[in-house]
Amino acid sequence: MAATRETAAAVRDVEQYKYGFVTDIESDMAPLGLNEGIIRFISAKKGEPEWMLEWRLKAYRYWLTLTDEEPAWAKLKFPKIDFQASHYYAAPKQAPALTSLDEVDPKLLETYKKLGIPLLEQQILAGVAVDAVFDSVSVATTYKKKLQELGVIFAPFSEAVHKHPELVKKYLGSVVPYSDNFYATLNSAVFTDGSFVYIPKGLRCPMELSTYFRINERNTGQFERTLIIADEGSYVSYLEGCTAPQRDENQLHAAVVELVALDNAEIKYSTVQNWYPGDADGKGGIYNFVTKRGACRGKNSKIMWTQVETGSAITWKYPSCILQGDNSVGEFYSVAITNNRQQADTGTKMIHLGRNTRSKIISKGISAGHADNTYRGLVRIGVKADRARNYTQCDSLLIGSTCGAHTVPYIENRNPTALTEHEATTSKISEDQLFYCRQRGMSQEEAVSLIVNGFCRDVLQTLPMEFAVEAQKLVGISLEGSVG
Amino acid sequence: MKPSEIIDHPFGSAYAMRLGAKAPWLGHLPGPKTEAWRFTPLRTLASTPFVPASASNDVDVTELPRGLPLIAGAARLVLVNGAYRADLSDREFGQGLTVSTAQEFASSARSPLALLNAAYAAAGISIDAAGAGLRPIHLISIGAAGAEPLAFHPRLRITVAPAASLTIIESHVGLPGQTYFSNPVTEIVLAEKASLRRYVSVAEDSEAFHLATTTISIAAGGSLEAFHLGLGGALVRQEISVRFEGRGAAARLNGAYALSGRAHHDFTTVMDHNVPDCHSSQVFKGVADGDSHGVFQGRIHVARDSQRSDARQLHKALFLSRGPQIDCKPELEIYADDVQCAHGAATGEIDHDHLFYLMSRGIDPATARSLLVEGFLTEAVIEVSVPDVQAHFIDAIRTWLKSREIARGRP
Questions:
Q1: A131: how many CB neighbours lie within 10 A of its CB?
Q2: What is the ipTM of this complex?
Q3: CB contact, 8 Å: A406 with chain B?
Q4: Which of A158, A236, A344, A411 could form a disulfide with A205 if both were Cys (CB 3.0 to 4.6 A apart)?
């Protein structure tokens, strides 16, 4: 399970922070705070060419003018972030490995068990020294070789900057410009690494790409930058994240993902996000402020976002599609689960510019405990988007009387031949359904898990197989303790 | 807002004087960055040099404009430029109805426009209803500007006593001429088991501004049936907030708009389920022609522990040509779990199959379109339970459709 293995990195990072980050500031870490010097430091550490540094500085200088423009429109409550109180660069280091699973937090092990993760993978995830038999590096190199033969570029971002500057220059910031929004601008200035993918013309990428392959660059850190380009007639499916709980002491994550689909190309981007949500009282947890956007530049191109968001204390994320090419298609499938004190404000934007463009939005929000879950979406039909078509369905499920579920769609239509439809419902788990399941011997939690999985089915079935199975279990686990 | 800014305000220094100490917490006119006004820019309004109605005496309205509905048995109440006109109004309202003019009262509305009204309004009108078998009231507000653009701020309060029921029809019309700005604030309080039927028609002059703010509170077992028709004005906004204050209350809030030319119409509703066991339903339909702009913003709020709330909302709009823009923002904000809440929104053009069906039966395209538009809007209008009013609204829509056909040279 590719995705789960990637988590090993994240889990190991935690250990890393525990043992190294706090107590002992090493030379490979930027000093506290953010200024031009830090940006130059990051760029120098990465050995970046001059143009890359210039781009970062341009973003940073612009960011300085935004001090009062931190987005405040989302239905989220959190204390003001002190951007000078973070380290913006820490070099990847090897974690001190544990010797056996016995040393791992039993709670974590229990979760792995519920997710059905094989023992071997559990060890990797938990940061136990890996058996030689399971040589992930060799597995990765085999795949890497095959991809190379096909002409696929799949590399850490910093490597792409050196090896494929023409592609990076051409596409970086072309979908999410450095001036896009507060967090994206910050990311543009300080991003440390991420993935770069280029699929050549006419190629159907034979395997699902996952960040896991990038063995050397696991600690992509809190400011990740991903750029995926699907050239004419190509297809790629990309997986991000993992179902197993990921711990990370970085409070703020501000990632940027840019997708470009040219004529007849298709990109499928799947995310399972399960960062540390904080404890039951809302202490700690990740702030996940992500800008994700795809441009369907070419005719008949297609971008499909699927996300399962169960983690993070705060989620601020709107994977969007700009449908420029005629007949292009944008799809957004989302399951967002919030429990305890989690807050999620997530949704999408579908910007229809080309003719015959189509978009579909299916959003399922589940709120439990004291959590708040908001769907926020925009469907905009431009003057020239003849016969554009949008269908949106947002369903919210409330579990318990102390949570909140909100729906804030914006529909802006400028073209008479376009058709937009939006539907939203809010309800709770029906007593009848629960009774029916209980009557057949299921426990309350099993019953809730089953019903919620049914509620999310339309979304979960769009996930790649290996993700889908785990995501289903994750849905149940995320809601544990929410039904009394 | 600094005092100097108030003096520079388009509404002039009288505004500043009346606001007095309250001024600091008043904002400017809401701009495009104010979320509640993102679809309805007030630039033109802010840049028009309005004079207060009290300062303008050069227009004399001596009779009612034609085309106003005749509601059998209704008592008439006429405002010209926001001021009560005894000579055009009925003197007797019948048992149970108390109408007092020259009233000062506070409103719970706190929007910048409502505050502007509070600062500027001439005497308010208060309608108190008690008992059953009351006469319906027909309130007519006429805007008539003289040589200069004119601003007026009607202020109305309606209270309905326990178990009483009242019907009120409001017609907002204008005389052609200079532009005017009508900024009515209406405060409605329904006591326990009280019921109100309120039918509002806004057909202002095509150059006029009309920004209405209505707040309605409904006590236990009370019920509201409201219908708002928007047929004209350069910039019209009908903002309606309903708040349930007691269990078992119900509200049906419906509306329709038909826009042509450069008209802008905005329906903004807030349905606040503040207590358990209340029902609300909303159906809004609109058609947009020319270069018009239709807006619907509807928020349903269900407070914590407002269990067994039932709230529904629907907005549908049709494009009649290439030029218009339709923006829609239905919003759900739910803090209780045992609820049934749903909203739907759709925009599109006339279904070609429907058109084909009618044309295949020998109906010419223009008539077929008119029929379909009328049918589309009528779906909302049939929610009006008073037959006279329903018929009048359907007539008004037909007249609008005819004027549209004439404008396009298809008599």
A1: 10
A2: 0.86
A3: yes
A4: A236
